Recover the amino acids of this structure.
């Protein structure tokens, strides 16, 4: 193995590959000027479980599940086989006016799995889009148009979202996001949204519990909805974890309160479980931890096990019924070319099969407990202000002297330094600012977890020294 790392022919090929990449590609979410000197470019020839394998055979642990999409490891054979089989049968067909069984079966199974709340009619309809942002856009448009179709409340045009929330990068999704780095430059293009304070437990006052802070945030949401009574069509939020906002976690009591407030105010609740769905926070869906059911549920990322882009928006029958009319204009005239792609649906069906066959949620409980043990010693690190966990997500908030609310000077690029250190030692962490996190594929094993914990510690040491 080590021989291969130094094979001159392989190294020359890898160099050529890097040059070709930098000559033609525009990488996502990247200041391209930083490539490759400040920001190394990890070349991936293949995937193997939780490993990414380079052209020289070098292995890197994918501790971020390739932007939170991968569930069971790379190149998982059961999903690969399901896609191959579907590709030989039907690769794609227009979903307007046509039907295919993978789309039907997936919708049936998603609805059967979706969160339920006693006394509430279950989610009953599935609309497909082809990525997370597109799913959020569809949900926002559905909530807005439901009221527009009714026509009796012309002032119901506003969305409420949470501070520090994230829902994607397209203009509609960005309008309900609150991460300045992604949003600021486009602000003049964005629809106006109202932002309610985040229930984020990291913002709790000294001595205040996570639940206490969540109650305060819910009180603030109540005031905002009172102030704008009759003007809001939907509240959109990420249940349990604001992921892109720095893996900030909140107490489920907030979700209960938000559900009640939406009911009182005639506001649709849109749960964006694009990142937290499919077992990521310990339950199949994060809403289950609050015992609530949203009116619209957005799913993507892990939906296909991380193989293909697909999103699904689950809606209640009442919402769906608001579009049934003799007029075509009252229909939901929204589509994407690849809506409900059969290959993606086949990958999603194989993913749901694996949840059953491998008893994934139960196995994750054991893995999450091991992650907690390995993360615990870092609480005592002099520059770690918070270690938090929700199931298969663990986050480490780095701060000067380990003091809450004392972030490092951004010019120090603390997170980036940790990233580079970890990458050189075979672990792909991709910090959010100065928040390091573990969000590994569920198949991560004991030896890989030990490597992850060890490299995280030395990366934090190196970056904060
Ligand atoms: C990633 C993400 C999105 C956007 O999904 P894309 O497929 O990247 O467009 C939306 N909401 C949340 C919560 C996400 O984490």
């Amino acid at each position: 193995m080590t021989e291969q790392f130094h094979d001159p022919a392989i190294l020359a090929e890898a160099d050529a590959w890097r040059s070709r990449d930098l000559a033609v590609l525009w990488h996502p979410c990247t200041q391209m000027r930083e490539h490759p000197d400040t920001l190394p470019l990890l070349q991936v020839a293949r995937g193997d479980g939780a490993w990414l394998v380079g052209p020289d055979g070098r292995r890197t642990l994918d501790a971020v599940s390739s932007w939170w999409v991968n569930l069971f490891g790379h190149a998982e054979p059961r999903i690969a086989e399901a896609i191959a089989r579907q590709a030989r049968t039907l690769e794609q067909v227009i979903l307007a006016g046509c039907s295919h069984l993978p789309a039907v079966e997936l919708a049936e199974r998603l609805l059967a799995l979706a969160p339920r709340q006693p006394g509430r009619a279950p989610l009953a309809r599935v609309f497909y889009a082809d990525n997370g942002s597109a799913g959020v856009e569809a949900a926002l448009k559905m909530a807005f148009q439901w009221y527009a179709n009714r026509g009796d409340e012309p002032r119901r045009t506003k969305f409420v979202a949470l501070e520090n929330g994230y829902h994607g990068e397209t203009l509609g999704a960005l309008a309900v996001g609150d991460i300045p780095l992604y949003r600021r430059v486009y602000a003049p293009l964005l629809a106006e949204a109202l932002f309610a304070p985040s229930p984020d437990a990291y913002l709790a006052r000294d001595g205040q519990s996570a639940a206490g802070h969540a109650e305060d945030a819910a009180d603030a949401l109540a005031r905002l909805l009172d102030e704008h009574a009759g003007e809001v069509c939907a509240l959109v939020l990420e249940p349990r974890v604001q992921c892109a906002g720095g893996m900030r976690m909140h107490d489920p009591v907030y979700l209960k309160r938000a559900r009640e407030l939406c009911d009182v105010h005639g506001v649709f609740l849109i749960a964006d479980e694009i990142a937290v769905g499919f077992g990521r926070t310990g339950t199949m869906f994060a809403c289950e931890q609050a015992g609530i059911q949203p009116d619209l549920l957005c799913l993507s990322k892990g939906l296909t096990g991380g193989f293909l882009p697909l999103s699904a928006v689950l809606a209640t029958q009442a919402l769906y019924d608001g579009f049934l009319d003799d007029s075509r204009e009252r229909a939901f005239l929204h589509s994407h070319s690849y809506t409900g792609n059969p290959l993606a649906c086949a990958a999603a069906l194989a993913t749901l099969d694996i949840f059953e066959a491998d008893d994934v949620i139960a196995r994750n409980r054991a893995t999450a407990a091991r992650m907690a043990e390995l993360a615990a010693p870092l609480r005592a690190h002099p520059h770690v202000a918070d270690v938090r966990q929700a199931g298969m997500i663990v986050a480490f908030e780095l701060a000067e002297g380990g003091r809450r609310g004392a972030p490092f000077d951004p010019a120090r690029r603390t997170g980036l330094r940790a990233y580079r250190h970890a990458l050189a030692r075979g672990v792909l962490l991709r910090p959010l600012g100065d928040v390091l996190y573990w969000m590994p594929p569920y198949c991560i094993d004991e030896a890989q977890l030990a490597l992850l914990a060890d490299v995280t510690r030395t990366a934090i040491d190196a970056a904060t020294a």
In short: The radius of gyration is 22 Å.
